[in-house]
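Lab notebook, bench 4. Still working through the backlog of constructs that have no structural model yet. Next entry is a single chain of 118 residues. Request: give me the C-alpha cells for it.
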Amino acid sequence: MRARRIWPAVLALAVIVVPGAPAHAWPGPYVTVAADGSGDFTSVQAAVDAVPAGNASTFTIKIQPGVYHGQVIVPASKPYVVFRGQGPDPSAVVITDDRANGTLKPDGTPGAPPAAPP
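Model written out:
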C-alpha cells in the first residue's frame, strides 16, 4: 500500500527534473546585453562595468545573439563573472576586437608592450 503512494511523487519529480535539460533559473544577479537595444546594455564592456566591484558571488552577463565589437576587460576586482550566450546556436554570439599586440591606441600612444618570449 505504501508503494502506491510513493509512485505519484516519483513520477512528478521525474517530470520536473530531466537530466540534460537547461536550467531556467539564473544563479544570482544578471544583466542582458543585446545589440538591438532590447537588453540592459548594448555592449559587453558596459555590462562588465555595471558589475559591482568586489562581488562575492556569481554575476551573469547574458548575451543575446549578435556581433559585439570592442575589447572586453574584466578587472580583478570583479570576480565570479559568467558570460552566457543566449539562443540555440553558440556561434550566433560573436565578440570581436581587431587589435593586435602592440597596436596603437586611438590617441596614438603605444598599447601594451610586446610579450616577452617564454
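Notes after review: The chain has a mean pLDDT of 78. The radius of gyration is 21 Å. Flag for follow-up if needed.
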